[in-house]
Amino acid sequence: MDFDDEYFMRQALREAQLAYDAGEVPVGAVVVWDNKIIARGHNQVEQLNDATAHAEMIALTSAFNNLGSKYLPEATVYITLEPCLMCCGAMYWSKVARVVYGAEDVKNGYHKTTGDNFPFHPKAEVVKGILAGECAALMKAFFAERR
Questions:
Q1: Which of 4, 6, 18, 125 is deepest in the core (most CB within 10 A)?
Q2: Residues near 106 by beta carbon (within 8 Å), at least 6 away in sequence
Q3: Is 15 labeled as catalytic in the residue annotation?
Q4: Which of 46, 56, 104, 134 is flagged as catalytic?
């Protein structure tokens, strides 16, 4: 059965909900290879006391371990929020084929630093705005609760 970008983004949203429930900024990510989820991750910055424990970083590390490889040239990474520059760098070096994200992050997303420059691997495809409203709503609810 073939799944589409919305299906996999919904899986990333499930990961984001886990982060939300744990008191973490609700960002989730899944790594897909050959139409199968091979890794999942959600923000664990507070839990691990590690500023680099972003959803993408955790999902990528899990994918490397799962495949026994340092490159993911046929993978798609689905992220509920526009990735930061650190996570873009990790995806660049991972050589992922596609990056799909939901909501934009004007404060910390890669566009803030790179503008129109492309921080991903030259062969990567980037798809923006998949379930953006749902992804943004989870973030807004999280921060509204804390103010």
A1: 18
A2: 112
A3: no
A4: 56
